[in-house]
Amino acid sequence: MDTVYVPEVHFVQVQVVDSVRIKAYELELLGLKEEISSLRNLNSALGFLEDALRLYYQKYYEEAIKRCDEAISQVPTLALAYIRKGSIYFAQGNYQRSREEYRKALQHDPGNEEVLAQLRRIEQVMRER
Question: I want to staple 79 with a disulfide (CB 3.0 to 4.6 A). Which of 42, 72, 109, 115 is the partner?
């Protein structure tokens, strides 16, 4: 039989602090005012993207695109907004615009494998047409 060290576990109460607020303070200390503004707009942008997703499933594509544009106006670097917009254009059969939006997403999230896979899929669909 071997002896194994098992550390003692203690539970302590901690005050939960809003991580977005902490990040904003970090960015402010670094002098990154633009990033702070984007971070503060993130909740608003995510709300627009949630609306866009709901509208997408209801097939109100033009309204969904408008919500994506509103999210982009709040946080221009939010790759998810471009991905969602690309998905909407893909559902409409507008593969050219879909590809453009996915490429924009890739600029903001270069290693995103799902975006790369979707771009390959779009290219394949466009070749087959």
Answer: 109
